[in-house]
Structures are given as C-alpha cells and as structure tokens.
Amino acid sequence: MRVQNIFLFLLICSFTFSSCKKEKVKKPEGLFKGTYTYTRDFGNPGQEIKTGKIELYLGDKRYAITPEKELTPPEGSGNYQFAENLIYFYDDRPRTSDFDVSLLVQDDFIMSFDGDQLYLVQRSSRWGSDRKYEFLLIKQ
After folding, report:
1. Residues sharing a CB contact under 8 Å with residue 38, sequence separation 6 or more, in sequence order
2. CA gap 92, 84 in Å, rounded
3. Cα–chain center distance at 45
C-alpha cells in the first residue's frame, strides 16, 4: 500500500513538473518572401504608411533583407540573434554618409513563427517610437 502511494505521488509530480516546462519557440531559417508595412506617425494630423514586397534571408546567424526595388526601404544585412519570442537584428553593412539609416531594419522585433508563416513586429527603434516595421512572410 505504501509503495503504491509513493508511486502515485511520484507520477503526479512528474506530470505536474513536465507540464510546467516552457514550450520552445521555433526558430526560422531560410528564405522568406512576403510584404512589409512601414508606419511613421507624425502626430496629429498625419501618418505615413508604406507597403511593399520583400525577401528576408536568415541563416548562419546572418540576415539579409532585399526590398522589391533597389535603394528603397526596408533594407539591412548583418547579424541576428534570438531570445524567447524576440529576434534582434544588427545591421553591419557599410553605408554612404548621405544614407538615411532610420530606414534600416535593425533593433528588436516580436516574432511569431508557425513553421511556414513568419510575422515580425518592431518592438523598439533607436530612431524613436514614431516609426515601426511589420513583416508578414512565408517560408520558401
């Protein structure tokens, strides 16, 4: 009887602790294609919203963003890293002095990935809270 109680107690504890484990976030890698939305809020009365097509490559801890048209936002290439449901982009490509660096994809993004669809929303920007990128991409 005592052995059965101990076994039952251990069985309940194992189920309890195994259900407390955090679910691992899937980490996307490869080529993704889709759309972006860039919003810049100028305050009352206006807002600038741009949309377009984009490609994002993630691999070997490097990323590269290719816009629909050359020399248009968004763009960026460099290193990236994951933390929970966040992805951090660090652009390290050399630019000319007249380039508007606020159009680069860098800083941290909230990430949602189901294995095929990748959704990224910019969480913060070193250029201020009035600018934000959103990406909806499909794994190729």
Report:
1. 48, 49, 50, 51, 73, 74, 131, 132, 133
2. 23
3. 30
Contacts of 15 (CB under 8 A, 6+ apart): none
* Cβ neighbour number for residue 63 with a 10 Å cutoff: 20
Q: Can you say whether residue 10 is alpha, beta or left, with left for phi > 0 and alpha for psi between -120 and 50 degrees? A: alpha
Using a cut of 0.85, tell me whether the model's pTM lies above it.
Answer: no
| C-alpha to C-alpha distances, 125 to 24, 107, 121, nearest whole angstrom | 26, 6, 11
Q: How far apart are CA 85 and CA 30, in angstroms?
A: 18
- DSSP-derived pairing of the beta strands 76-83 and 117-122: unpaired
pLDDT along the chain (140 residues), means of 10: 48 49 73 90 74 92 86 82 92 84 82 94 73 90
Structure tokens at 46: 């206006």
**Structure token pair of residue 32:** 């993704």
Backbone torsions φ then ψ of 4, nearest 5 degrees: -65, -40
Distance between CA atoms of 96 and 7, rounded to whole angstroms? 69
